[in-house]
């Protein structure tokens, strides 16, 4: 018999959630993960115990005879773990331990990495592990404490998701490019310019704008397409053309004059959503290290992040 190991506790926790929730889908929603990962966890636990825990049908999930007995023991284990967590939360003098954070390559490089030294200085007992990746990250399977997600498709029911900063977008070009090719007067004039796009430029391969309550679409003939916001910024700064970029990537360039805000009356609709979201697993006793990190990010970003300062400048007369 393979037997249980300490790592199987997460599978026991998933088993209890499935029984309590009545379905794999609802358990996945409550734990902030996917139905497939919950199913794998229960399957691993059944393999370790060499018993069938659940009777599955197309309409319902029920406990097997062995599953009923094991569920009672598992439930007590989960309750004891929660009691330990509650005690630790009440007695811990300050945040500590390893904090695992995930975010996108562009946001991590442009904004988050520079913020971490100040966070670590304030909370020296917290060790930070920052993972940058441009893909969906399963918080449970990959052991992530908090993810700063930039996506229009974040399911707010799958975990706790807290907005920590708005996501704004602009059309940007270098002063040199505009000096050579001129400043476009309106959206139609962009047809005469070299446009730089992010990959396939999102839905239907076009740029979208909100103008006076209406949604306008413009399909650029991409002179250059790159699947990296940071690389797109470099090409724009080098004079390659006009790019649609998130302000967290290009805001500092706007502030210093390295880049120019093109057609500022337009409000581009970006492919990364409208907010940076701090996503973390639902937990009655949120660890101090997670709570202080989210508070710290809100303190430094918030409703008016520093990279959007150029948008708040008074118009010149």
Automatic annotation (TrEMBL):
Top-level taxon in the UniProt lineage: Bacteria
Gene Ontology terms for molecular function: DNA-binding transcription factor activity; sequence-specific DNA binding
Pfam families, per the entry: HTH_1, LysR_substrate
Q: Give GO terms for biological process.
A: DNA-templated transcription
Fetch the InterPro entries from UniProt. Answer: LysR-type_TF_proteobact-type (IPR058163), LysR_HTH_N (IPR000847), LysR_subst-bd (IPR005119), WH-like_DNA-bd_sf (IPR036388), WH_DNA-bd_sf (IPR036390)
- The HTH lysR-type domain sits at 7-64
Q: Which UniProt keywords apply?
A: DNA-binding, Transcription, Transcription regulation
Tell me which family the UniProt entry assigns to this protein.
Belongs to the LysR transcriptional regulatory family.
Its recorded name reads DNA-binding transcriptional LysR family regulator
Q: Which organism is it from?
A: Massilia aurea
């Amino acid at each position: 018999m393979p037997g249980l190991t300490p790592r199987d506790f997460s599978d026991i926790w998933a088993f209890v959630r499935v029984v309590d929730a009545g379905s794999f889908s609802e358990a996945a929603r409550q734990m902030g993960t996917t139905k497939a990962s919950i199913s794998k966890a229960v399957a691993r636990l059944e393999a370790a115990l060499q018993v069938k825990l659940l009777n599955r049908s197309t309409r319902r999930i029920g406990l097997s005879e062995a599953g009923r007995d094991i569920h009672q023991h598992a439930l007590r284990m989960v309750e004891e773990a929660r009691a330990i967590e509650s005690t630790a939360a009440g007695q811990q003098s300050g945040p500590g331990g390893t904090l695992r954070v995930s975010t996108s390559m562009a946001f991590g490089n442009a904004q988050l990495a520079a913020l971490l030294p100040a966070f670590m200085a304030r909370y020296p007992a917290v060790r930070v592990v920052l993972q940058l990746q441009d893909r969906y990250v399963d918080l449970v399977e990959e052991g992530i404490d908090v993810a700063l997600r930039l996506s229009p498709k974040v399911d707010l029911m799958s975990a706790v998701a807290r907005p920590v900063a708005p996501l704004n977008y602009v059309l940007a070009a270098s002063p040199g490019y505009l000096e050579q090719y001129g400043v476009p007067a309106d959206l139609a004039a962009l047809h005469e310019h070299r446009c730089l796009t992010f990959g396939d430029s999102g839905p239907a391969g076009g740029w979208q704008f909100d103008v006076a309550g209406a949604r306008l679409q413009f399909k650029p003939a991409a002179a250059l397409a790159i699947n990296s916001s940071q690389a797109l910024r470099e090409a724009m700064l080098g004079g390659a053309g006009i790019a649609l970029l998130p302000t967290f990537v290009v805001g500092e360039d706007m502030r210093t004059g390295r880049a120019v805000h093109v057609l500022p009356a337009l409000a581009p609709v970006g492919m990364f959503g409208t907010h940076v979201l701090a996503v973390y697993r639902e937990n009655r006793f949120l660890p101090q290290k997670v709570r202080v990190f989210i508070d710290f990010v809100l303190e430094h970003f918030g409703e008016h992040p520093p990279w959007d300062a150029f948008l708040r400048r008074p118009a010149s007369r």
